[in-house]
Amino acid sequence: xxxxxxxxxxxxxxxxxxxxxxxxxxxxxxxxxxxxxxxxxxxxxxxxxxxxxxxxxxxxxxxxxxxxxxxxxxxxxxxxxxxxxxxxxxxxxxxxxxxxxxxxxxxxxxxxxxxxxxxxxxxxxxxxxxxxxxxxxxxxxxxxxxxxxxxxxxxxxxxxxxxxxxxxxxxxxxxxxxxxxxxxxxxxxxxxxxxxxxxxxxxxxxxxxxxxxxxxxxxxxxxxxxxxxxx
Length: 231
Fold this sequence. Notes:
This protein is α/β, with parallel strands linked by helices. The chain has one domain (2-230): 3-Layer(aba) Sandwich (Rossmann fold), CATH 3.40.50.1360. Helix content is 33%, strand content 20%.
């Protein structure tokens, strides 16, 4: 299921999302002594990252990771890891830990297995997840065009992380599966612009998750996906 939160400006959205996420992380720390946050890449979250990085959170008890990553060098403009380091792991949030999804030069089966063991033991279930959405309705690196989409969306999938080879986007990817992200206590979908509102409307008009994978999060009754949108 889902709830849509509309904001007049992106600044208002970023502030509201930063306020909410900081509250949720601090609440998780109060209960468990630690908190985990998985974020998405792209240009949309930059303002949110900057505001969140200045929040008064016990950041040394927070682990940040990505919902997905392109298997590229960290210095590449396509690296989500670089984006997070330059925009979120700054100021007060510089004290947070970062779990790298991209480790090593090759995404081998052995590397993928090691990463799965690590996230299962250290991170899951995630406390807060911030998703984005592409024009084709993909989220994380759950692409409708990929051969891995059925595995990625399967509730029975035991692998928290999977390798994805999209045919409509560049770069090999590593991504959390739907089954892993579904365990999260709090799921947000961060969207900006009229074009994304159009895609969201289409996603809400049908139920085929393989056509538009974001539908899995919007329509699953076990998930309360909070959509934050601004023009």
